[in-house]
Amino acid sequence: MKSIGFIPLRKGSKGIPGKNKKKLLGRPLFCWALGEAIASQLDAIYIFTDDNDIITFVHKEYHWTDKVKTVKRSEESATDAASTEMGMLEFVNGLEEPFDILCLLQATSPFTTSVDINACLDKVRSGANYDSALTVVNTHRFTWYEDGTPKNYDVFNRPRRQDFEGLLIENGACYVTTSSAFRESKNRISGNIATVQMPEDSLTEIDTLTDWKIVEELLAARLKTKKQSNRITHLILDVDGVFTDGCIYYGAEGELMKKFDMRDGMGLEILRQYNVEVMVMTSEDSQIVASRMKKLKINDVFMGVKDKYSLLSRIVTDRDLSFSNIAYIGDDVNDMANICAAGWSFTPANATMPIKNHADVILQNNSAEGAIREACDFIIKYNNRYE
């Protein structure tokens, strides 16, 4: 059964302007759902948007997979008054390729994982006569009617949490339906509906800036649930503000020079002698950086990367690693997700404060002044316990 993902994104957003492109832990909001969709059992994922910037970004950042496609949505389906179902109908009616299952994913639910998506798909594909499935949260909160009467418990026999089944609440993250059910009902879920439970923190959707701050902290905490109990096998580094002092010298013809520290290069050479692979990922596309990495004999150099967490996740999967095998050095907000997710994260003494708040180790040295060498020494000593 062919299953396709559908992520609707509008250019306009009144609550949080530019919400879908706004960086959550250093990566655009919609990338959290998209990245998990790519890792799921979905056969294809369609970004349905009226925002040309998002379309350009997707084509550039996700060229490595043929699962992701973009479709330009009409102005009518992208207004404040347009429903999600209106967008889904426009998309399905314009889609030429046949499909059996449609999965709606909401970009405002960044807690959605590939496991959640697959669980919804499995419900509909199970042969148990489910036409649709949606994600829910089991909450143990007590609810009330406006007239002062309780909805779900007896005030004179207040149950203990462990004795209270609670309520299943729709969290708006993932909806799966068969093609036939959707075409008949014109609704995201219909017929015989199954539920898939997600953790309670996923109940927080992003509609306000307060929601944004809460979700960012919760998401950072989730990424940090990593085990620092494995040998570090890979060191991944940002460039500007890590290898360099963060300054770029420009002339009339463009970038002229960057400052690097020779001690950092020696530290990386020694580290590789201890069988730790060194990789570089940077959002810049610089010939100077390419030349320096060639001089350092670093072969895995990824330049022009805007969604660094997506690349890190792909590296972990493709090379059969664990995040706990990874050490990462970054200095600014576009490194945030990787700083939170890596088994060990380092940041130079002159890094930005948001990164310092999340890094495992704040190095004593500044970037381009021995910070990388210091991190290399730490890794060598740390790995000694596994020898």
TrEMBL record:
Its cofactor is Mg(2+). The keyword Cell membrane does not apply. Coiled coil: none annotated. CDD domains: CMP-NeuAc_Synthase. The keyword Repeat does not apply. It comes from the Bacteria. Keywords: Hydrolase, Magnesium, Metal-binding, Nucleotidyltransferase, Transferase. Pathway: Amino-sugar metabolism; N-acetylneuraminate metabolism. SUPFAM superfamilies: HAD-like, Nucleotide-diphospho-sugar transferases. One of its GO terms (molecular function) is nucleotidyltransferase activity. Its EC number is 2.7.7.43. It is an enzyme of class 2 (transferase). Belongs to the KdsC family. Homotetramer. This is N-acylneuraminate cytidylyltransferase.
